[in-house]
Amino acid sequence: QVQLVESGGGLVQAGGSLRLSCAASGRAFSSYTMGWFRQAPGKEREFVAHIVWSTGSTVYTDSVKGRFTISKDTTNNTFYLQMNSLKPEDTAVYYCAARFAAYRYWGQGTQVTVSS
Questions:
Q1: Which of 104, 108, 105, 82 is closest to 94 using CA atoms?
Q2: Would you say residue 51 has pLDDT above 80?
Q3: What percent of the chain is predicted at pLDDT more than 70?
């Protein structure tokens, strides 16, 4: 079992920044990939970014490249999503998730609202 607890959402103006955190606990994560997803009202959940815990390798969806950065801190088993140059279309509930094969473990979600 892996437990994920998110924090850091909120309301920000367009062009602003937010950092989301996801604290992981449970089993060792050395073989896991940690990801961020988001779901806007009336839309399906979409992939945002992931980081491979063991190597630090990252992948981003095109719409956030150059604006968002995913990172990890192995000393406290936490990973982050730094979001800069936020746009109204980034408004969504953001979820962190963990997978070995398929994404099986999910956080509770945190609301990010970007006003224009």
A1: 108
A2: yes
A3: 100
Residues 69 and 66: their CA atoms lie apart, in Å, by: 8
- Residues 77, 96: contact at Cβ < 8 Å? no
Which of 46, 35, 23 is closest to 93 using CA atoms? 46
In the chain, count H helices and then E strands: 0, 11
Asked if 67 and 81 touch (Cβ cutoff 8 Å), the reply is no
> How does the average pLDDT of the chain come out, rounded?
95
pLDDT-derived band of residue 1, with 50, 70 and 90 as boundaries? confident
Check residues 29 and 73 and name the one with the higher pLDDT.
73
DSSP string over 54-78: TT--EEE-GGGTTTEEEEEETTTTE
